Automatic annotation (TrEMBL):
The keyword Hydrolase applies. It is an enzyme of class 3 (hydrolase). The keyword Electron transport does not apply. It holds the Pfam family Adenine_glyco. This is DNA-3-methyladenine glycosylase I. SUPFAM superfamilies: DNA-glycosylase. It comes from Rhodobium gokarnense. It comes from the Bacteria. Its EC number is 3.2.2.20. One of its GO terms (molecular function) is DNA-3-methyladenine glycosylase activity. Keywords: Glycosidase, Hydrolase. InterPro entries: Adenine_glyco (IPR005019), DNA-3mA_glycosylase (IPR052891), DNA_glycosylase (IPR011257).
Length: 218
């Protein structure tokens, strides 16, 4: 990033891309991160498998950079049966040992066991709510409930909100693990339950249009 880019990011969280488009600063003009920012982050998702994947990956990201997880995502998909939670829920001790030996993913026993546990909890939640999507989209805030999206101290969106605290609390009550309020909010941002692209980011209005046309699952 050049000095002008640093100054602009410091002032409003926007970084001008190499194509001239203004974007949320965190992509850093890294090609894979930039593509994720433009095509995925904040765009609404209703597919249960994709939602479960994001819940798992956000849990694995805890304490690490999202870019590290993003670059290992295909390895995670291969290791966790494409995040088919019906299959993952049947993983046993041998699978845990297999995953601990897989250098292509994050080899953290607690996070691995949490993903398997959460798969079983996802199966239960689908039986209760009809779909994982129907449950998590209950926590979409009304427009008037949205806080200021830009935290000038961190040059990024807020770390958690009342809705993410409530979602994390509800899932914890149901036995989910490695899914606290900050992880819950990162999940909500990534799957479009909130649109935290900054006002000057070229993606913001495109994402908002997608959200306006999105059929909320019930």
């Amino acid at each position: 990033m050049d000095q002008d880019g640093k100054q602009q990011a410091a002032e409003d969280g926007i970084l001008i891309g190499t194509d001239g488009h203004p974007r949320c600063w965190w992509h850093g003009n890294l090609p894979d991160y930039l593509a994720y920012h433009d095509t995925e982050w904040g765009r609404p998702v209703a597919d249960d498998r994709r939602l479960f994947e994001k819940i798992c990956l956000e849990g694995f990201q805890s304490g690490l950079s999202w870019l590290t997880i993003l670059r290992k995502r295909e390895n995670f998909r291969a290791a966790f049966a494409g995040f088919d939670f019906d299959k993952v829920a049947r993983f046993g001790a041998a699978d845990v040992e297999r995953l601990l030996g897989d250098a292509g993913i994050i080899r953290h026993r607690g996070k691995i066991e949490a993903a398997i546990n959460n798969a079983a909890r996802a199966v239960e939640l689908v039986e209760e709510a009809g779909s994982l999507a129907a449950f998590v989209w209950r926590y979409e805030p009304a427009p008037e409930e949205r806080p200021d999206r830009f935290d000038k101290a961190s040059l990024g969106p807020l770390a958690k909100t009342a809705q993410s605290v409530a979602l994390a609390k509800d899932l914890k009550k149901r036995g989910w693990k490695f899914f606290g309020p900050t992880t819950a909010y990162a999940f909500m941002q990534s799957v479009g339950i909130v649109n935290d692209h900054l006002e000057s980011c070229w993606c913001r209005h495109d994402v908002e249009n997608q959200r306006a046309q999105f059929d909320r699952p019930i």
